[in-house]
Amino acid sequence: MKPHILPAIRNMKDMEKFVQTDYRSCVLLDTHIGHLNGIFNYLKKEQIETFIHIDLIKGMSHDEFACEYIIQNYKPKGIISTKTKVIKRAKDLDTVTVLRVFIIDSHALERSIQLIQRTQPDYVEVLPGVASKAIQQIKEATQIPVIAGGLISDEAEIDTAVDYGAHLVTTSKRALW
C-alpha cells in the first residue's frame, strides 16, 4: 500500500484488483444507478469506505436531491461533486465532501478558489492532478486539504503533487495502487 493514494474504481476489473490490495478507501466513478446496491453491499462486506462521485452516476440526476438519496440509502464515506449545491447538502447531512475543480487557466483558478472559500468542502480535488502550481495556490489560499486527480501516470507525478501540497492523489491507474 502506497501512502497518499486513493484508488479510483471505474469498472468491475478495477474493483476485483482493488479488493486484493490493502487499501480500505476508494473513489467510485462511472457507475450506473442499478449497480449501486450491489457495489455498496460488496464494499461494506469488505469493510471499505467509499467516496462516490455523484456527477458520474448514470441514470440519476446530479443534484442535491440525488445526493440526499445516496447518503440516506448507501451511507458513503464521502460525496464528490463539481456542484456547490450538492456539496452543501452533503455537508448538511454530516458526510465528508470533496469539491472537484478543473483548472484550465488562471481565470478558472481564481473562480475555483472563490467557490472553495464560499463552499468550505472538507477536501478539494484539483484536476488535472499534474497541476502542481494550482494545487499549491489553492491549498495556500483556502487552507483546505487538496486531492490531486487526473492525468497521474507515474510515481514521480504522485510525489510532485504531494510535494506541492496534495493531501491525497486519486488515480485509476491500477499499477500505482
Descriptive tags:
7 helices; alpha/beta; two-stranded parallel ribbon; 177 residues; eight-stranded parallel β-barrel
In short:
Keywords: Glycerol metabolism, RNA-binding, Transcription, Transcription regulation. It contains 7 helices and 10 strands. The protein is α/β, with parallel strands linked by helices and 177 residues long.
Overview of the structural elements:
With 177 residues, the chain is α/β, with parallel strands linked by helices. 40% of the residues lie in helices and 25% in strands. The protein is built from seven helices and ten strands. It has helices at 12-18, 36-45, 64-74, 84-92, 106-119, 132-142, 155-163, and strands at residues 5-9, 25-28, 31-32, 49-53, 57-58, 78-81, 96-102, 123-127, 146-149, 166-171. The chain has an eight-stranded parallel beta barrel with strand order 1-2-4-6-7-8-9-10, surrounded by six helices. Helix 1 (12-18) links the parallel strand 1 and strand 2 (25-28). Helix 3 (64-74) runs parallel beside helix 4 and helix 5 (106-119) runs parallel beside helix 6. It is globular, with a radius of gyration of 15 Å. The protein starts with a strand and ends in a 6-residue tail after the last strand. The model has no long low-confidence stretch (mean pLDDT 95). Pfam families: G3P_antiterm (PF04309). Keywords: Glycerol metabolism, RNA-binding, Transcription, Transcription regulation. Regulates expression of the glpD operon. In the presence of glycerol 3-phosphate (G3P) causes antitermination of transcription of glpD at the inverted repeat of the leader region to enhance its transcription. Binds and stabilizes glpD leader mRNA. This is Glycerol uptake operon antiterminator regulatory protein. It comes from Staphylococcus auricularis.
